[in-house]
Specification:
Blueprint lengths: L2 E3 L2 E5 L6 E4 L22 E2 L3 H10 L4 E6 L4 H16 L5 E6 L4 H6 L7 E6 L2 E7 L4 H14 L1
Parallel strand pairs: 4-6, 5-6
Antiparallel strand pairs: 1-2, 2-3, 5-7, 7-8
The structure holds zinc ion.
Zinc ion binds next to loops.
Length: about 150
Amino acid sequence: MPDLDNRGLIVACPSCGQKNRVGFTVREARCGACKVVLPAVAEPVEVPDADAFDALVGAATRPVVVDFWAPWCSPCRMVAPELARVAAANAGRFLVVKVNTDAVPELGDRFGIRSIPTMAVFRGGKEIGRTAGAMPAQQIEAFVARTVAAA
Ligand SMILES: [Zn+2]
């Protein structure tokens, strides 16, 4: 899983293994060591803290789909592989991130998350829609498409 901090995503090069920091606004990044083009992030990314979240959603040039979850929540665990499918199928179109509301309670509080899983779409630094409850990948994709189209 790629790491995230308040300056970008940290992506391991599939060719040489070098870890590269890719800024949030970069559309095509190359590996600093071997210069191959790094593939778009194709997995959900865990948000480590509110700083990184704010930096990401404030700068991202593509929609960011946020899954608010917690480790003790069994519907959250059910939806995790569905989100992984969505992230893989939509690499380069939108980014899927996960906010563990136990680890980063500040974000759950700020967005008034009452039940988990809750999935929200952010674009241009703002939330443009949300839905609650576990659902299959196709339904998550339909929710994101509908939300982005309506915003
Ligand atoms: Zn490389």
